């Protein structure tokens, strides 16, 4: 698809084409790429297309209410900004503009542990409800300091990313010899400078810093240093969500890290229902991965997610048109969700049920009957 820079996008996917034109190849590939064969990267989006809708007719949909609460915080829609790294590679003002757009749209923002703006800069830029993503470093005191700074600066929850004991093999970054900028949050604590002429310095930096020994038993330590609710991001199986509930986390996020870690894991929409059925409503289940349409949001909600997170489209909006682009991406998804709810006979989020969608599993069951 060729998209002219001066044109106004009419859907979220068109912002990706604008971002591709606006960004240097190295940076576009960093944001857009997945790991190894990128099988799961394609599946995250395409799996939604295999789910069909089962609308109800003759329902009063003259008023549609998309508002909800997430961990007790009111939001205009069940759409959140996922924590994605290095926003200043997309726009000079980076995460500050992303946060302002979140505030303007009244949605919750997840701030990346690898943000290019500091925790304090983002916190002071607007009144958006913000959650903070956490990685566990070998130097545990660095992770602890980031949690403390987030808590002091009004962040409302910790999103503990658990699918990255090592960095996935992102071959585009290796080919491009992707260079990570110095992160201001870590100035004086750790340097991103890596003396390695081979491949991506992101990979070398991650190998030096990420703690591959971090395990279930260590979550008790994290709980001991913060009063913030902890959500585990990176759950894909029934077995792991049961463990998560046993150790007392406040929520889980079904995510495969945007298909940037282990390739050939399921698309997140295909993993969602397994997790939801295991949870049985005991803790919130959020969803991350492959959202490009309001119909995608609706499908995830029908399969049991309380809300969805949106990652790459936010960055593409930022790269193409700054704060306005981020706001338009959010507004497009909200508008499309509102229309989908109306055409499906669902005036409120509570009206969206499992019976509103048909999945491949449903088709297979039908064939066996």
UniProtKB/TrEMBL annotation:
Molecular function in Gene Ontology: (S)-2-hydroxy-acid oxidase activity; FMN binding
Listed cofactors: FMN
Major site of localization recorded for this protein: other
Localization annotation: Peroxisome
Origin superkingdom: Eukaryota
Any single GO BP term: hydrogen peroxide biosynthetic process
The EC number(s) this enzyme carries: 1.1.3.15
Catalytic activity: 2-hydroxyhexanoate + O2 = 2-oxohexanoate + H2O2; a (2S)-2-hydroxycarboxylate + O2 = a 2-oxocarboxylate + H2O2; 2-hydroxyoctanoate + O2 = 2-oxooctanoate + H2O2
Keywords, comma-separated and alphabetical: Flavoprotein, FMN, Oxidoreductase, Peroxisome
Stated family: Belongs to the FMN-dependent alpha-hydroxy acid dehydrogenase family.
Name under which the protein is recorded: (S)-2-hydroxy-acid oxidase
